């Protein structure tokens, strides 16, 4: 079944009426891959109808970031949506989303300026602003986001709680290649050699998660993960590590050395011109 494609607010309103019952939204920037499809399947299971938005949001890209070269693969994206039974694709132009230069935008607060937010100032403000606009336009009952962008997901949950946005937020697990690489639209920038180096990110997370499962505390978990990154930093082409942190899943503040309970081990690095992020949820036990 081919989804209805809505490009304007009017077309979106008409399309919404054509889908009876509850609606789940999967916001995306296109360049859809198997990770996005898993979000759509999750959405299917949660509501009567599914809408996918495709919009490369200029507000969440900083100067010198990859807004211009971000992959745009609209035809393939619509075909992928059709394969999983998406009802509506909302694909607004920039003018539809931002008819005027926005004056009033969201501030992501302290949680938006740490970890990924420290490397990408303003990124989470722009992301939250567009997500709230999409929620206001589509008015879904449920919205589904990937755990791959764990800080984004935590911030969206916080925005919905702080601003009383009437939607249920659902997180869906990261999808990985068989060798561990987390699926990302940016993986298509990688040459085969760069891809090999990039595997260090998921290897580092695996090493940290294994250490945590064996009862290690925060310092040892970070140490195990750091060893993998150090090896990749010396590889050719090298990985330029950006951060490796163990944080509270809800606040993204770094956990203390005696922390027990859930945590997220998050990593980011640059290979060539490509900035990649990954994370793994883990449990830290008391006896370390
Ligand atoms: O995760 C993404 O693709 C984007 O950040 C989102 C949530 C669609 C907002 O532009």
Automatic annotation (TrEMBL):
Annotated positions binding beta-alanine: 60
User: Which catalysed reactions does the entry list for this protein?
Assistant: (R)-pantoate + beta-alanine + ATP = (R)-pantothenate + AMP + diphosphate + H(+)
Question: Which molecular-function annotations from GO does this UniProt entry contain?
Answer: pantoate-beta-alanine ligase activity
Q: Which UniProt key words apply to this protein?
A: ATP-binding, Cytoplasm, Ligase, Nucleotide-binding, Pantothenate biosynthesis
* This protein's name: Pantothenate synthetase
Predominant location category: cytoplasm
What CDD domains has UniProt attached to this entry?
Answer: PanC
């Amino acid at each position: 079944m081919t989804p209805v494609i809505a490009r304007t607010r009017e077309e979106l309103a008409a399309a919404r009426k054509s889908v009876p019952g509850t609606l789940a939204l999967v916001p995306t920037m296109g360049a859809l891959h198997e990770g996005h499809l898993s979000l759509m399947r999750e959405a299917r299971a949660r509501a009567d109808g599914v809408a996918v938005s495709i919009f490369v949001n200029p507000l969440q890209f900083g100067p010198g970031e990859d807004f211009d070269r971000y992959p745009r693969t609209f035809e393939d994206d619509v075909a992928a949506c059709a394969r999983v039974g998406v009802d509506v694709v909302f694909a607004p132009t920039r003018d539809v989303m931002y008819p005027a230069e926005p004056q009033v935008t969201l501030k992501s607060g302290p949680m938006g300026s740490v970890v990924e937010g420290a490397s990408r100032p303003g990124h989470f403000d722009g992301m939250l602003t567009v997500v709230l606009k999409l929620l206001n336009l589509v008015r879904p009952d449920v919205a589904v986001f990937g755990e791959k962008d764990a800080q984004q997901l935590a911030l969206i949950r916080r925005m919905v709680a702080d601003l009383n946005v009437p939607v249920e937020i659902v997180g869906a697990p990261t999808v990985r290649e068989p060798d561990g690489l987390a699926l990302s639209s940016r993986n298509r920038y990688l040459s085969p050699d760069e891809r090999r180096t990039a595997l260090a990110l998921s290897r580092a997370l695996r090493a940290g998660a294994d250490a945590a499962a064996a009862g290690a505390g925060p310092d040892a978990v970070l140490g195990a993960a750091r060893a993998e990154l150090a090896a990749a930093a010396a590889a050719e082409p090298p990985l330029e590590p950006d951060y490796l942190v163990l944080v509270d899943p809800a606040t993204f503040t770094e956990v203390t050395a005696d922390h027990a309970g859930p945590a997220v081990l998050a990593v980011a690095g640059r290979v060539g011109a490509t900035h990649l992020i990954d994370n793994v949820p883990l449990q830290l036990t008391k006896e370390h």
